[in-house]
Amino acid sequence: MTLLLLLPLLAGLLCLATRSRATWEWLNLAAFFLLVPLAFKVGAEVLQHGPVTALGGFLRADALSALVLILISCVTLACSIYAIGYFRRDLADGRIVEAQLRRYYVLTPLFVSAMLLVPLADNLGVMWVAIESTTLASVLLVTFYNRKTSFEAGWKYIIIGSVGISLALFGTVFTYYAAVGVLGANTHGGMNWSVLADVATRLDPKAMRLAFILVLLGYGTKAGLVPMHTWKPDAYAEAPVPTAALLGAGFINCAVYGIARFDILAVKCLGPQFPGGLLAGFGVLSILVAAPFILAQRNFRRILAYSSIDHAGIMVAALGFGGKLGALGAALHMLFHAAAKPLMFFCAGNIQQHYGTPYFWKVRGTIRTMPWTGGLFLLATLAVIGTPPFGLFQSEFITLSSALVADRGWVAFLFLTGVVTIFAGFLVHLAKLSLGTPRTDAPARVAECPWKLTAMSLVAVATVALGAWLPGPLYQLVQQTAVIIGSAP
Amino acid sequence: MNPAISTDIAAQLIALLAVLMLVVQLLLVVQRMLLTSIRLFAVQSMFLAGIAAVVAFFHGAMHVYIVAGLTFIGKVMFLPWLLDRQVRRMRIGQEIEPLVNFPTSMLTCGGLTLLGYIVARPFTSLERLGNNTLAVAITLVLTGIFLMFNRRKAITQVLALLTVENGVMLAAVALTTYGMPLVVELGIFFDVLVAVMVLAILVYRIRESFDSMDVGKLTQLKG
């Protein structure tokens, strides 16, 4: 487990010390390639022996952590393969100079290392430090292109994120205070998840209620829940595509993970009504607010951010509906979303690079001008909006059933309205983008880059395969995650 | 010294220092000059370091001394120096232009202080250190967030963010006697330092490309 954190850190530092682009590319690729088996190994150990620890209990992984680890490492690998092709194209087109790339190849491994620490930290305070570190490592990636608009996006990203995250720290302090009330002032484990989970039923409910509200506002900002979502479209559209994909498919799991941990404590301490109501409210509000922005969207990079707000909403709502079904829905949704989402970012990035514009109206009939990208974009969109037989249909369906089981009929209705509106909105946009007649002034067809194609086909295969067949061990992991989240009385 | 009396002295000292932090916060709200604002922040952080030192001394918690030392080096000396240098080097105009005028800001902050006391009320009986420390901490967070929205210059937003952070750290000391585990304190300290450095880089780049530090001009991204 320690290796999981050190490997990217080391790769980042080595990139800082070297000067050639080829070295940077290979260092990143090698480090992220090795992360995937390591993450799966942690998953296998958890399945065999239950929760595992390292560094004298500083790091701890249970099924929930292992699931998030696996998702982050796989998304990271796909992004790093794609990044090579993406930045070579940027260099060839003269959008960036080679020296700028060092920033990307140094900061990305640091960003990934911080993301991996989030699910591994046993101490909720360390988890907070890790989430804050992801923001700090990624903000200069968001401003990578040094345009005026990138600085605007970067400023919003770090300022809104920092305000949010200080509220989360406040919430963490309150949780610690509640634990100190039970464990005594001189406790050393009062912030450790492994200790808190056992004493959660005895925590002071007043402190826990306030703590949960603060943490939900804080980590909800990082997850992009409405109304703290305003940084998201700017950051996703201004960041280079591999970074946006890492944020949108990788980091979002970390933020939801943080919320889930505190939700478990809150449900044990306060019962499901209070935290569940808040989560369901924020989740469904996010879905409903994202819907009109998706319908009226003109920019195909920004629409991905609204889709991400929508999916963060679905995950949080599933947590809120609670029970075994809701927990299963949330875990499955994280898995399927992380599998399908990178493909959308990759395809959108290809189209933006090829056409030199992020606007829908300038791009028509990509399936003819760039057959692979156009086709896969359609596939990815169908998967992400939850068309059967793709996985996201299953997880959204389970979430909906959990709402009905929890007897939240109206919320279920609003949830369904939002999801269906978004479904329709995406279909309209994508039908024109992919299937329309190409404009006469479209740039000439060029061969697609093999690096990008490799990354895209890997993700596409994973998306299609997971829709039809969830491998046994992975499903076990998801089930155990659901037990951790949903086992509370 | 009688332990009961010494705890009592500690509680009063902490309450005094906490109230001084709040006074400095209110001065920040009505401060016109940028460099003075930076100094006020340094003074506020010094009171916070003082609280940590008092806790460490009267409760014999050694690791809280480290927290006090770090706060002093980081927030009283290093960060104000960094921001000060930035302001001078970039020749940023001295006047702060708030969005809401000073009397209204003052009234708002009065309201927020009241709100802080209301939120803190259920916890005051359980508080371990000083009276009202938690209420002050909550007020610092609330007014810090208000300051952030009320200031247009990028550097003053950074200062506001740092006062929010001071509030959270005050709450950590007030609520739990011994502060948080050392590893967390170190992590937070490191994060705050890096955050301000990253923000300083961004401020510099924004200044360069917009020829202004007014974040009200950051309005190109919509929809």
Task: Describe the structure in your own words.
The complex is a heterodimer of chains A (489) and B (223). Chain A has 489 residues and is mainly alpha-helical. Chain A has one domain. Chain A is 79% helix and 1% strand. Chain A contains 19 helices and two strands. Chain A has a two-stranded antiparallel sheet. In chain A, helix 10 packs parallel to helix 12. Chain A is globular. The two termini of chain A are 31 Å apart. By secondary structure, chain B is mostly helical. Chain B has one domain. Chain B is built from seven helices and no strands. The mean pLDDT of chain B is 84.
Compose a concise summary of this entry.
Chain A has helices spanning 2-17, 21-49, 63-92, 100-120, 124-142, 148-183, 193-199, 205-223, 231-238, 241-270, 273-295, 302-321, 323-355, 366-369, 371-384, 391-405, 409-435, 450-468, 472-486, and strands at 52-54, 59-61. Chain A is mainly alpha-helical and 489 residues long.
| Continuous helix count of chain A | 19
How would you classify the quaternary structure? heterodimer
Shape annotation of chain B = globular
Number of helices of chain B: 7
Major β-sheet annotation of chain B: none
* Percent of residues in β-strands of chain A: under 5%
- The residue fraction in helices of chain B comes out at over 70%
Distance between the termini of chain B: 65 Å
Instruction: Determine the mean pLDDT of chain A.
Output: 91
Write the layout of secondary structure elements.
The complex is a heterodimer of chains A (489) and B (223).
Chain A: H1 2-17, H2 21-49, E1 52-54, E2 59-61, H3 63-92, H4 100-120, H5 124-142, H6 148-183, H7 193-199, H8 205-223, H9 231-238, H10 241-270, H11 273-295, H12 302-321, H13 323-355, H14 366-369, H15 371-384, H16 391-405, H17 409-435, H18 450-468, H19 472-486
Antiparallel strand pairs in A: 1-2
Chain B: H1 3-29, H2 34-59, H3 62-90, H4 102-124, H5 133-150, H6 154-176, H7 182-210
Helix pairs in contact in B: 1-2, 1-5, 2-3, 2-6, 3-7, 4-5, 5-6, 6-7
